[in-house]
Prior knowledge:
The complex is a heterotrimer of chains A (260), B (295) and C (378). Chain A has 260 residues and is mainly α. Chain A has one domain (7-259): Orthogonal Bundle (MetI-like fold), CATH 1.10.3720.10. Chain A contains twelve helices and no strands. In chain A, helix 3 (56-89) packs antiparallel against helix 9 (171-200). The radius of gyration of chain A is 22 Å and the shape is globular. Chain B has 13 helices and no strands. Chain B has helices at 3-13, 16-45, 63-68, 71-104, 109-117, 124-135, 140-147, 161-184, 189-197, 202-230, 234-240, 247-255, 261-285. Chain B is mainly α and 295 residues long. The longest helix of chain B has 34 residues, at 71-104. Chain C has three domains: 8-47, no CATH class; 67-164 and 296-344, 3-Layer(aba) Sandwich (D-Maltodextrin-Binding Protein, domain 2); 170-290 and 362-377, 3-Layer(aba) Sandwich (D-Maltodextrin-Binding Protein, domain 2), CATH 3.40.190. Chain C contains 15 helices and twelve strands. Chain C is globular, with a radius of gyration of 23 Å. Chains A and B meet through helix 1, helix 3, helix 4, helix 5 and helix 6 of A and helix 1, helix 2, helix 4, helix 5 and helix 6 of B.
Amino acid sequence: MTGRLPRWLGAIVALVYLFLHLPLLVLMVFSFNASRFSVEWTGFTLEWYRQLLERPDILAGLRVSLVVGAISTVVATALGTLLALALARGRFRGRGALESLLYVPLVTPEIVAGISLLVLFAGLKIALGLTTIVIAHVAFSVSFVTVVVLARLAGMDRSQEEAALILGADEWTTFFRVTLPQLLPGVVSGALLAFTLSFDDYVITSFVAGSGTSTLPVVVYGMVRRNIDPTINAISTLVLVFTTLLIWLADRAGRERFAQ
Amino acid sequence: MTDRRRRLLAWLGRRPALQAWALIAPAGLWLLLFFLVPILLMTGYSVMPRGTYGGVESGFTLEHYARFFDPLYLAILGRTVVVALLCTVLCLLLGYPVAWVIARSRRWRNLLMFLVVLPFWTSFLVRTFAMIFLLRDTGLINTMLLSLGLIEAPLTLLYTPFAVLAGMVYSFLPFMILPIYASLEKLDPSLLEAASVLGARPAARFRRVVLPLSMPGVVAGCLLVFIPALGSFLPSDLLGGAKQMLIGNLIQNQFAAARHWPFGSAASTVVMAGVLAGVLLYLRTRDRPAPAMPG
Amino acid sequence: MTRRPDHPLLDALRSGALSRRDFVRRALAAGAGLPAIGSVLAACGGGGAERPAAGGMPPMPAAPEGEVAIYNWSDYIGETTIADFERETGVRVSYDTYESNEDLIAKLQAGATGYDLVMPSNYAVRVMREIGLIEPIDRSVLSNWGNLDPAFLAQPFDPENAWTVPWQWGTAGLAVRTDRMPVPDSWAVFHDAGWRGKMTQLDDMRDVIGCWLKYRGRSLNSVDPAELAGAKADALRAKANLKSYLSAPVKAQLIAGDVWLAHLWNGDTAQAKTAQPALEFVLPREGSMIYLDSMVIPRGARRRRAAHEFINFVLRADVAAGVSRKSGYGSPNAAALAADPSLLRPPSAEEMQRLEYQEDLGAATGEWDRIWTEIKAG
């Protein structure tokens, strides 16, 4: 029936999750390993975490990444959702052209996007810094959000919206209390994608970041390539643990409110 | 609601096109200014001669495009398309079940969704080096297999096509899972119940009910994986040993070591134009099915 | 501060000699519409063709500004250099890093401003001078200049040291696990199938094609098609035996023993050796490349005095020694070498015979790139 999961399906899904998380587990476990290079476990240590405190550049990078990620996610999700609504529901000329233009950011190699944005900012005399990073991140995230929300909108049942309108609700109320809640899984998926893209971006950010505004990937990139430095494992573990905690708390708060 | 607002909305309501453009404006302007204009600038570079020390000089030439249409570069493009297709198919086969399970699960949905995205809150490079640490000859997997006596000599896992695909699939899996989930989530379970009551077996239920209704998500996922995968080159370098050249490497090199912006722009314009043409074709031929869902 | 020299059209527009409409018309006529605007835009950003004449700079402020922005290679500075500098001078340092000369050039050329001090390699300095991306140095405020080893001064890319101050030098060669294989002395070891799957070469066009040119006794700046074809053939023969092309990240695998022989720089080998004493660095008998990274000031830097202050600081023997100790690379500072015997010695006269500096290839870069593409795709 529809409730039970076939065993082979469950096995595949479990394997996929294992595949996704094995490198993470390795990361976390070896952030406590006393040896810098070896696969063998030479002893438990918190040395690498202690060293993090002496690395203001890593901590500053993390802060910049979080700020940029939060702002660009909110903006990109809002813009992308509006765009998706217009494309799916709107009646206007040039819709086909607009939808195909939507795919330009997906197609563009990161280095081309990065350099061209830098040329633009220089030409417009916009100083490089947090603003330029956010602008760039929103620019390449909006398309992803739009595509995801569009997939959600396609074939979405409009009868509830029509019922609301017939019952006398105006368009704003209908949108916020009927359409948006139905759209929410798509919007949340898009937002998650947007944050992921922003938090993990290196190439574009390296071109549009100004002095003193390096994000975490930019700070970490050189370190990881040149040297085996377990402090990277330490900061990655901390980020993972912290975000897990945050999401868990948010989820619990959400459930409690729902239960009430 | 105030009278003025009501009148404004009524006025807007009679102009659906204007409504649509009002929705599009913020995103459209952003993309226009901060994406299209820079890209057009770069396209402009692709028809200019290269400066002796990099950069461009004024002038007009199509030589860079002519240079690209050469068996060497076209072979690279062909290989890249094959790799991207493989990656997309793998992501689909692995990602669809995950999206299905997440969409069907009420209790664990948030957790499962979160676990899909969590790996990406570490840096890509860090994850890749963790994978290298797992896969290399003296890495964790080989060490464990050797100590368990399951193998006699280390398996060559790193710097193989397997490693490259593993790396690419790893990077792109959420881009497949999230859209499919968004599409599957609105699937009404009563449809499946009705189908099974009418005698359909699981395979038929999937093929004739679930798959068609999740198609928008599947297509979105495939596009969101295939297109960026075309430009991907880091997994090939880091996990494949940099012994192959994909179109992403080529373009990267033009802006890096070769300092040949015009050729890089030309190559990238050709790829982008090709993909856009494909997408346009798909959009033209796609019909938007009216969902046969009971109210 | 005098106005930076700009694209002549912009000058004319600003001074009023050209009306806006004429400016647009001229700009469009100068190229083919959008491309021309693009190049003018790029010129606006500071990539103009003229360079300020050495010595034509306005006088610097007497005291350093409150902060300085440095853009350097990653992992290329001493453990405490920045902290010490901030403490002793009170100047705050904003420090960012890059991974390659081309990243640096691309960023500066596309118009990134805000950096006061950058560290390009030898061939990149010439490129940056040609495109007008850097400013002259004022030696009069560098009291520690005398500490520098004359062997690293008066380089072809800056004969009077009017633009550059030497920072670190390095060479490329073979890093070998002496406990796994006999020590080779020639690039030919890469053609030995006996070590198949245990060797790597740098993932770098200039270094790979360059080493095979040296192998045959040619210059690693050659643009002769026949010589390049020979180098390509050698490189492809070697590729069959390579585990991978790998640059700095090969250290982890050298230490662990996955890789027994790596084409690697001396500084990185020295770093890896601290964790794996069985590693040795060998300069092949056919010769190799040497590079010299220099400190230069990007054009338009707002805090020149602070930048000079930093340069003078790292010219001190103890600071220079600290930088080299951490990076593993060679210091061009004679006083530092005299003070710390553990530092990398400059190449001997005999070794210098075999070493060659890389030059920019100019228009021939496209030819080299095609060969590199053929090697990689082959």
